[in-house]
């Protein structure tokens, strides 16, 4: 099979043997790829370390296998290093690691997720509210994957009233009449549901309008999103 040219962001990088690296790539159109770049950690190759650094956006050719295993990634070239430092670097790596944790290694149309992550990398230096970035990126990528959060009605009975509980297993809200039917559901103030809806509506490039998120609200929002993640990675 001929190689496929991809654009991708490196979610994870692991040194392999003496000269190679294993990478998890979020590609623009071919899903999440687990691949190997052979021999790149050799000085004679003249491939700069930024090309295989976590967080870099690259272009490369991928030889997709017909059987399970690492794909061969060749001729990588750097498009954007997202060269952060300090708190911005910590946040960027946290986002990359979280996405790597719950986005499955599979072939699928990943353009929506790739665009969200790429746009986030561009915005991070200009955003002071890092909590807002963390919430909006996680929410939007989960929704792109079809995992939720689904917030318009009770996911058990369909009621649009008294949506005071949240279930990570179901991926969204449960009403006060049905929560006993879903043992994993937990209490969530309805005003916090409204904030999650707000984050769903706001484009990533407008996240700067969110100036402050109180700690309790942030913890509740991330609990909702993390419960969805935990359910899907434990399946």
UniProtKB/TrEMBL annotation:
GO terms for biological process: DNA recombination; double-strand break repair. Residues 1-82 form the DNA replication/recombination mediator RecO N-terminal domain. Keywords: DNA damage, DNA recombination, DNA repair. InterPro entries: ARFGAP/RecO, DNA_rep/recomb_RecO_N, NA-bd_OB-fold, RecO, RecO_C. It comes from the Bacteria. Gene3D superfamilies: Nucleic acid-binding proteins, Recombination protein O, C-terminal domain, Recombination protein O, zinc-binding domain. The keyword Repressor does not apply. Belongs to the RecO family. This is DNA repair protein RecO. It comes from candidate division TA06 bacterium ADurb.Bin131. The lineage of its organism: Bacteria, Bacteria division TA06. The gene is recO.
């Amino acid at each position: 099979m001929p190689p496929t040219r991809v654009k991708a962001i490196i979610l994870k990088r692991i040194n392999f043997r003496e000269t190679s690296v294993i990478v998890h790539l979020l590609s623009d159109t071919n899903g999440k790829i687990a691949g190997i770049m052979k021999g790149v950690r050799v000085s004679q190759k003249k491939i700069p370390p930024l090309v295989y650094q976590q967080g870099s956006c690259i272009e490369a050719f991928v030889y997709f296998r017909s059987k399970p295993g690492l794909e061969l990634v060749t001729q990588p070239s750097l498009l954007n290093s997202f060269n952060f430092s300090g708190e911005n670097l910590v946040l960027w790596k946290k986002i990359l690691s979280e996405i790597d944790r719950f986005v499955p290694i599979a072939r699928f149309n990943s353009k929506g997720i790739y665009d969200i992550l790429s746009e986030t990398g561009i915005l991070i230096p200009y955003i002071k509210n890092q909590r807002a970035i963390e919430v909006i990126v996680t929410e939007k990528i989960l929704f792109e994957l079809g995992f939720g959060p689904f917030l318009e009605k009770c996911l058990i009975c369909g009621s649009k009233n008294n949506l005071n509980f949240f279930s990570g297993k179901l991926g969204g809200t449960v009403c006060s009449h049905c929560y006993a039917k879903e043992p994993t559901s937990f209490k969530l103030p309805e005003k916090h549901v409204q904030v999650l809806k707000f984050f769903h509506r706001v484009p990533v490039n407008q996240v700067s309008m969110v100036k402050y998120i109180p700690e309790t609200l942030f913890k509740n929002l991330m609990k909702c999103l993390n419960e969805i993640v935990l359910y899907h990675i434990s399946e």
